[in-house]
Specification:
With 281 residues, this protein is mainly alpha-helical. Helices cover 73% and strands 3% of the residues. The protein has a two-stranded antiparallel sheet. α3 runs parallel beside α7. The two termini are 31 Å apart.
């Protein structure tokens, strides 16, 4: 029987598929999934409360500062502000930075890297497991919120928009996961760096006029998910003024998101291939 050193090298795709199969079940049943359920469950609960409140008043509407807001507009706020700005980036941090760090912490990284496979295939397999795991929880939550908030009479006209929103969730999870996979593979204290990025760098530069916002993932995702609020009050007008306007078109956004995704995964794979992982005793 051939030893790992002399065994034929497994192809990249086959190795990534095996790591995916091994990691998916572990990821779904990990302690991190509890936080994932909370992150997607709280918005669902909030949408249920709004549904109850609107049902006692005017079905499908909510009054804000004297202006009636439709269920679709409320759903857009959930997607555009809560999921795109908070849930999706945070999941990218929690899972992306841990793709390799968990293996180091569990002291299994040496076992994986002594197999006759490319190191980068381990990262890609675990990244795909993250993407499937989070998608299985996020997309159903968004759909439940949609059916809770949008009146039945409006579902036929707005359902294509729901499909676009679901696609946006997948894109956001994929890009943020790739970015923080690179952070986790290349840098120390990746969780801290990730939190500073999404709660420090991105919110700040989004409010600064100029081109700095082009160096964020949020800028392109939010340009794909605009939302509206009543603007008859000074508070609402101020909130709208802080949001990006006249952003790039969908094709431009998707192009740059694809560039960020590919470059981040490539850099993450290169970092895993070249970095020496020393296990502390």
């Amino acid at each position: 029987m051939a030893s790992p050193a002399t065994a034929p090298r497994t192809s990249f795709v086959t190795a990534a598929a095996r790591v995916l199969d091994l990691s998916l079940g572990e990821m779904i049943w990990s302690r991190r999934t509890i936080l994932l359920v909370l992150l997607v469950g709280v918005p669902v609960l909030l949408a249920a409360v709004i549904r109850i409140l609107t049902k006692t008043a005017v079905f499908g509407h909510l009054e804000v500062n004297g202006v009636m807001v439709g269920g679709r507009a409320i759903f857009d706020v959930f997607v555009g502000r809560l999921f795109v700005r908070f849930v999706v980036p945070l999941l990218g941090i929690l899972y992306g930075t841990a793709l390799i760090a968990d293996e180091v912490e569990d002291r299994t990284i040496t076992y994986l890297f002594t197999r006759p496979i490319a190191r980068a295939s381990v990262l890609v397999g675990k990244y795909l497991a993250y993407l499937i795991c989070t998608t299985l929880f996020v997309l159903p939550a968004v759909m439940i919120i949609y059916f809770l908030l949008v009146p039945l009479a409006d579902i036929g006209a707005t359902f294509p928009g729901l499909l676009l929103d679901l696609g946006l969730m997948i894109v956001g999870l994929a890009v943020y996961g790739a970015v923080f996979a690179f952070v986790g593979a290349r840098m120390s204290r990746p969780l801290v760096i990730g939190l500073v990025f999404i709660f420090g760098w991105e919110p700040v530069v989004m409010l600064i006029p100029g081109y700095l916002r082009h160096f964020t993932v949020a800028y392109y995702l939010q340009s794909l998910a605009p939302y509206t609020l009543p603007t008859d009050s000074s508070a609402m007008s101020l909130l709208q003024s802080l949001l990006p306007s006249n952003g790039p078109g969908a094709a431009v956004c998707l192009f740059w998101l694809a560039v960020i995704w590919v470059v981040s995964l490539a850099l993450a794979g290169r970092a895993v291939e070249s970095r020496e992982y020393i296990l502390e005793p």
